[in-house]
Structures are given as C-alpha cells and as structure tokens.
Design a protein that fits this description.
single chain; mainly alpha; 4 domains; 81% helix; 0% strand; flat; proton transmembrane transporter activity
Length: 448
C-alpha cells in the first residue's frame, strides 16, 4: 500500500511538471513586463526608453537577463517533460477520446497554455535573443580570437579592438584554443616569456600596456569562472541524475519485481555465502555467551527462535542490497548518458577548460611537475599499486552486486597499470620533453 502511494505521488509530481515549469516562466515574463511598465513606459528595457543613469540601466538589464534565463530554462523543461508525458500517456488519451468531459478539460487547458506561451513570446521577442547566452558566446569568441591572434588585440587602436576581435570571431565558426602544449619553438618558452615581459615594461606606450593588462586580467577571470562552473556542472549533473533516477524510478520498479518474486533473495552466490556465514556466527555467539555467563543460557527452542528472527533480518538486509545493486547499474548508465550529453553540448566550454588546465599544469614550476608525475605514477603504477587496484575492483563489484572474480582482478592488475605507465611515458617523451626539458630532467633525478 505504501509503495502504491509513493508511486502515485511520484507519478502526479511528474505529470504536473510541464504546468509548474510553464507557470514559473509565465511569472518571470510578468516580472519583465512589470519592470517595463513601471520604469520604461512599457517599452523594452534599454537606455533609449528611459532617462536613468548608467548604473540604474545596468541594474535593470541584469534583472531582465536573469528573468530571460529563467524563462528559457523553464521552457526547456516544459517542452521536454510535455513531450515525455505525451508519449507515455498516448494510450490513455486514445481511450478517453470519446469522453466529452475529458475533451472539454483538454481544450480548456490547451487554451490556457496557448495564452501563456503567447504572452511569453511577446515579452521575450523584444530582446531578440537570450542576453546571457549571447554574452557567453561573445566572451568565448573573444578568448579564442585573442588566443589565436594576439596581434588583433595588441596592435589595434583602442577604439577598434572590439570590432576586430568580433569580426575575427564571426569569420571563424570553430574555436580552437592554442594550449600551452602547442606553444613550442626553438628557444625555451620561459626565456621568450621573460623577453616579452621586459619588452612590455619598457614600452613607451604605457597607456596601451595598462589596457592590455586589464584586458588580459578580465579574460583570465572570465576563463577561470567559466572553467570552474563547467567542471562543477560535470560533477553535479551526473550525481543529481543518478540520485533522482535511482530514488524515484529505479528502486520502486526493482522493489516491485522483488515483491512479485519472493523466492529471489540473493543476486549472486557470494552474497548468499556472506549471509550464511553471518547467521552461523550469530548462532555461535548465542551459544558462547550462554556458556561463559555473559547472557542467559538459552534452550534449543529459544536459540532457534532467535536465529529465525535474525535470519529474517538478514534476508531483508540482503534483499535491500540486491535492489540497490541492480538500481545502481541503470542509475550509473543514466549518469553516464547525462555526462556525455553535457560534453556534446558544451564544445566551447571544453575549449576554455582545456586552455585553463593547460595554463595551470604547464605553468607549474619544474619541481612541482616532477613531484606530481612521481606521485601519480607511484600511486597508480608503482610497486604498491596492485593493492590499491584490488580494493578499487572489489568496491566496484560490491557497488554493482557482482561476484568477486579473482582471475579477472589479477588479469586487470597485470595489464591496465602497464598500459597506463606506457601512456604516461609517451606523454613525457612526446610533449613534456619539448615544452619543459628541465622538468623531465628534474623528474629523472628525483626518480633515481
């Protein structure tokens, strides 16, 4: 009964998702209209439609951009959830097609949805496109253009810099960041950086140099913020998808299967052996405590009753473990799909993150690089790494409810660390040796 109530409440919550999302988008559109009516004579929020100062205009533009972002997000949720519900409820719609009351309610709901969507479109049509997405795209294009052609921003007059950068971003549809690993030449990179720094400091055009420093700082700050945000999204979204799908969808389905097949208790032989060993240990503990006087001496009937009660608890515990293990398999699959979708739809952000990580890793001192390489190799491919890999494999098997396979574990430990060590050595020889030869020399000395 409790399971049915939970499934019904969850189903009702999913069914009302499109309505909730549309209402939130509608309220955000009302907020934008309220700002336009009160402060901009019912027109678009811009400098041309009001006599406020720059700070006030910026404040209202930020508010509108925030509401536009909410509207776009809620409309995306509305479309996706409505499509999913329309596919899942197709049969119910066909069965109730002839009911006049149901048909009338559907028509009324459709009219309400149409009116709200029409109002939302009228509000956001004034702003042509999402201001926040446009700002992000422009910033990414500026970073990419300046990384590819530094002379675009360095040599142009201050009044024409933004125009040239923007034109460069329009001409190039794909953004290719020049990572630190690609900046190689005849002279060492540190030597060239020092010369460039001295040249900039003695440049008589000090005003232009200061502007370049500010531009570089803004670009670096934006790149750092975008990279951290994207990395957090890569972590949070799969975890959130995992918990939501497992809690509200997978576990109820698997529990329903186990309730129909009560004879299924253990999903593999290892779990059964663990349960029997635990039950046997409990029975022996009762005998032992009675013999040494730590507990009352129990009769065989009483011991059997206690063991029977413990067997019921163990059965419930291992059934729950089996349910969680099966749910983990599909929840991890959904998480992986969400992770891949985020990567596929974030190509620009990936370019920014790659450039950000390259600057951090290749900007470390030579001893720091050597220390991190030695730490990584000793941890994953060193002498003591087989014990760590064995613990990881046992944890993965327990997570998915798989029986432990010693032969597979030994085969994995004998091959995967070797492959990892080969890839690392190739990276040191192919890339690090060209970019930072002193770091490679330091690594060899520390490793010896």
């Amino acid at each position: 009964m409790k399971l049915k109530s939970l499934i019904k409440s969850t189903s009702d919550w999913f069914s009302s998702t499109p309505e909730r999302a549309l209402n939130r988008a509608y309220k955000s559109a009302l907020k934008i209209q309220e700002i336009e009516t009160k402060h901009f004579r019912g027109q678009k929020v811009s400098r041309e439609n009001a006599d406020y100062g720059a700070s006030v205009i910026t404040y209202f533009e930020t508010e509108v951009q925030s509401y536009l972002q909410k509207i776009n997000m809620e409309l995306t949720v509305f479309k996706a959830s409505r499509l999913f519900l329309s596919l899942s409820n197709l049969q119910d719609t066909e069965n109730n097609l002839g009911t006049g009351k149901v048909k009338s309610e559907q028509e009324t709901t459709a009219i309400i949805i149409f009116d709200k969507l029409k109002f939302i479109d009228e509000v956001i049509a004034k702003y042509k496109s999402n201001a926040i997405e446009k700002n992000v795209s422009n910033n990414v294009a500026i970073i990419a253009a300046s990384e590819r052609n530094p002379e675009v921003t360095n040599s142009a007059p201050s009044g024409k810099k933004s125009t040239k950068v923007k034109d460069q971003g329009v001409k190039n549809k794909t953004i290719n960041f020049e990572s630190a690993s690609q900046k190689t030449g005849v002279l060492p990179r540190s030597f060239m950086n020092t010369l460039n720094k001295i040249k900039q400091e003695i440049d008589p055009k000090s005003g232009e140099s200061e502007e370049q420093v500010l531009t570089k700082y803004r670009k670096s700050r934006y790149r750092t913020a975008l990279s951290i945000k994207f990395i957090l999204l890569l972590i949070i979204i799969p975890l959130l998808i995992h918990q939501l799908t497992k809690t509200f969808f997978l576990i109820p389905v698997v529990e329903q299967y186990f309730s129909r097949h009560e004879q299924v208790i253990f999903i593999n032989r290892d779990l059964e052996d663990e349960a029997l060993e635990e039950l046997q240990h409990y029975e022996e503990t009762l005998h032992f405590r009675g013999l040494i006087g730590l507990g009352p001496e129990l009769s065989p009937e009483k011991i059997e009753q206690e063991v029977k009660q413990k067997a019921g608890e163990i059965t419930e515990e291992y059934r729950r473990h089996g349910i969680d293990s099966i749910a983990n398999i599909f929840a991890d699959l959904f998480s992986f799909i969400a992770f891949v979708l985020v990567l596929v739809n974030s190509k620009k952000e990936i370019e920014v993150v790659k450039s950000f990580l390259d600057e951090i890793l290749y900007g470390l001192s030579d001893p720091a690089k050597a220390f991190l390489i030695i730490l990584f190799t000793d941890m994953f491919v060193g002498f003591h790494s087989p014990h760590g890999w064995e613990v990881i494999l046992e944890g993965v098997a327990h997570h998915f409810g798989l029986p432990e396979n010693r032969e597979f574990n030994f085969l994995f430990i004998a091959t995967f660390p070797v492959i990892l060590d080969t890839v690392l050595k190739y990276w040191i020889f192919r890339y690090l040796n060209r970019i930072s030869p002193s770091a490679v020399a330091t690594y060899k000395n520390m490793n010896e």
